[in-house]
Write a structure and sequence with these properties.
This protein is of the alpha/beta class. 37% of the residues lie in helices and 18% in strands. The strands form 2 sheets. It has a 9-stranded mixed beta sheet with strand order 3-2-1-4-5-6-11-9-10, with helices on both faces.
Length: 315
């Protein structure tokens, strides 16, 4: 079986952890590199978090590189209110024994795409700063990228950081706009489907009971604050942990997990009120040529089954 070569571009908070573990443990994936970007928390923390996770996964062979420390324009915002000050729900974890590579993430992306022309899928689950910087620095990689599949945007639903915008796009709208309009083959997996893909507390208990691996135990500790918060009597949200970032890896492993439609996508970069909004033109309405495959539905149960089975394997 030919494994799917991917670069995983992360701003490692809680759901990024699950994406890294899924990619690191999948027998269908060859994880060429992990590239860190500022997003959920500062770059220093997203880098260290990524190193901790691959150490837990027993995959010190995977190169991890530091990328961009802030958006192309404007200032870093962060999302520590959702992920804890450290990005990992403030778990008491020791510093990783693994060191990052010295190469900048942007250069590592460029080199890997050239090394494996037409074979590399970039799985981007944070702000698109590293990706936009790579295609700007070396536009020659554009025809060589197999696909960019990203967690970001809200096509036909409200945003999660403003009424209009999803966090990853809002955190660096200029980078997102450059990527969407770059001409690269792109699949956008946004809130329309990720918010419907929920890992339940009983799913985690089942993983631990059936396969008591370090990864399963870590997931239990990592998600415990989220599940405990949902038990409060005053909690009004949807019960379960939304699998935003790991769903991207799942879609690479099994593309049939989602259904897609071609649309023209642009990003609002000027208006303060709707900054970061993914502007979606429906087919046959706009004269612009569609540039993005947009995920419109998801087989959530199929993905959760894949996730549990993959993470249940012994390291």
């Amino acid at each position: 079986m030919i494994k799917k070569k991917i670069i995983l571009d992360v701003d490692t908070g809680v759901d990024d952890v699950l994406a890294i573990l899924l990619a690191a443990k999948s027998t269908d994936v060859e994880l060429l590199a992990i590239t860190a970007v500022a997003g959920n928390v500062e770059l220093k923390k997203t880098l260290e978090n990524s190193l901790k996770v691959i150490e837990i996964a027993g995959r010190s062979d995977i190169p991890v590189a530091a990328g961009c420390s802030g958006p192309l324009t404007g200032s870093f915002q962060g999302s520590s209110g959702f992920h804890g000050l450290d990005g990992l729900n403030d778990l008491p974890l020791s510093k990783s024994n693994i060191l990052p590579v010295s190469q900048h993430a942007v250069d590592l992306i460029i080199d890997k795409v050239h090394e494996f022309p037409g074979q590399v899928t970039i799985a981007a689950v944070g702000p698109l700063t590293n990706i936009a910087s790579a295609v700007t620095k070396d536009p020659g990689i554009l025809p060589l990228i197999k696909e960019i599949i990203l967690m970001g945007g809200a096509a036909f639903c409200p945003g999660n950081v403003t009424p209009f915008a999803e966090f990853n796009i809002w955190a660096d709208p200029e980078a997102a706009r450059r990527v969407f309009l770059s001409g690269a083959p792109i699949t956008m997996v946004g809130l329309d489907v990720t918010q419907k893909t929920l890992l339940q507390e009983e799913d985690v208990f089942q993983m631990i009971h059936e396969n008591n691996t370090p990864a399963a135990d870590f997931i239990n500790k990592l998600l415990r604050p989220d599940f405990d918060r949902q038990k409060d009597e005053g909690y009004k949200g949807v019960k379960g942990f939304a699998m935003h970032d790991p769903l991207i890896v799942g879609c690479i492993i099994d593309p049939l997990i989602i259904k897609k439609e071609l649309h023209f996508i642009d990003v609002e970069t000027k208006s303060c009120d709707s900054l970061g909004m993914t502007i979606v033109d429906r087919p046959n309405v706009c004269a612009a040529k569609p540039n993005v495959n947009v995920a419109i539905s998801v087989d959530a149960s199929k993905f959760i089954k894949l996730f549990k089975e993959t993470l249940g394997r012994s390291l």
